[in-house]
Design goal:
about 350 residues; alpha+beta; six-stranded mixed beta sheet; 15 strands
Amino acid sequence: MRIATYNVEWMNALFDADGLPLADGEWSARYGVTRGAQLEALGIVFTAIDADAILIVEAPSQNRHRQSVVALENFARLFGLRQRRAIIGFENQTEQEIALLYDPDRLSAEHDPRGAFAGKKGGEDAPRFDGTLRIDLDIDATPDQVTFSKPPLELALRTSGGTQLRMIGVHVKSKAPHGARSEADIMRISIANRRKQLAQCIWLRRRVEEHLAAGDRMIVLGDFNDGPGLDEYEELFGRSGLEIVSGWNAAPELRLFDPHAQVVPTGQCAARPPATARFFIKHKRRYHSALLDFIMISPELMSLRPAWRIWHPFDDEGIYATAELRDALLTASDHFPVTLDIELDTSANPRPQL
């Protein structure tokens, strides 16, 4: 079985209010790319990935005027994808939902949030992800209130072969210092955003521990906007949010694993680490690469021959040699898909390798 995570930059802008794809020559929200070109590129990428389930980060918006599931299933219909069913969890106000597009012949998915609901006043421990967490962020003995702008998507999955597992899809808040007008502002806002991000990861980790303690098979995946060694604020706080969620210092049976999460370059001659995203820095006139997207699995799943792949058009030999797919990946989004092949159902036919 193949599981994927893919951050599709402003996918919402590719559909009208009825959820119909806008395959035309108007500009998409992706710089320098038309809606038709981005849709076509996405069709090529989704077809090539051929995953049984794809977590889509920045999926089309869900509100009283727009329906994310309708848009995604229309997208699947447009390109004849076997991943033709979609599911979301709690909607948010950012026009960027977290959704799963999956093949109903291979598995079923149910939105199954855990934890007690905690409204604006908040709760401790691990309340439901659409509520508020009370936690002291700055060690002043006063609880702060933390929310998710994009509540994680909690799913109960069951494969066609009967295997049950838990999945949590994630889009953790970015640390970018938006609104900063000076170096002091950048420092202040960045530290405040990092504190909030780490609090969200602590909240997520508490839910992970509940499932691992119960013996659940588990996959946690998505865009963490973070990773070991990503920036100087990790040194200030000691650990990245990703390491907190994975349980870096927990007993082995309570850890999550993704091989890319272990890579930290050291020294001036260290090789460039893997990357799942590529952003153009206008004032520097160059691209910046970052490792932001992960698929972490529980210890029990490590025995099922897991194999990870980052679909990077310049780092993956097979993709680089396939011009149509290479170009489509660059057109479709500023992130690249990550896939996990794992023997959840050994009776399934093996897929051809690119």
